[in-house]
Each structure stands twice: as C-alpha cells, then as structure tokens.
Amino acid sequence: MQDAAVVGVPDPDYGQRFAAFVALKPGARLHATDIRDVVHAHLERFSVPRDVVFVDKVPRNATGKVVKDLLAEQV
C-alpha cells in the first residue's frame, strides 16, 4: 500500500459510515476483503469500512492534508 485514507460518507440508515480509499504501489495487489479483515482483527466491528475504493492517488491539499470532500464524492 502506498497511501490510504478513511473518511465518513453519508449513510441512509446510520447517518454516516466509514469508507476507505487506498492507493497501491505499482504492481501491488490487494483486495477489499483483505483490508476489511485487517481492520476487523484490530478494531471493533463498527470500525470496519463498508466501502473500500482503490484510487490512483489520495488527494491532498498544499499542506498535505487529505481532501475528504473529493474522496466522499467517489462513493
């Protein structure tokens, strides 16, 4: 994995849910279930992201902070 971010996205039932955005290194292979399994092994069930989206690059602003709005639009 090269970079990742987890943001809250709207959910009709719960208000918000987690969505993970993952940028892989060139040639790397990873599946959404792998990410969910690792999170579930270390955190509570409610912390496991329902959505895992693979992106070319996690958008960041000039100061290096993740641009959450751009990510949330992709779900």
UniProtKB/TrEMBL annotation:
Annotated keywords: Fatty acid metabolism, Ligase, Lipid metabolism
Similarity comment: Belongs to the ATP-dependent AMP-binding enzyme family.
Native species: Actinokineospora soli
Protein name: AMP-binding enzyme C-terminal domain-containing protein
Keyword hit for rRNA processing: no
Signal sequence annotation: none
Listed Pfam families: AMP-binding_C (PF13193)
Domain AMP-binding enzyme C-terminal positions: 2-65
Record flagged with keyword Lyase: no
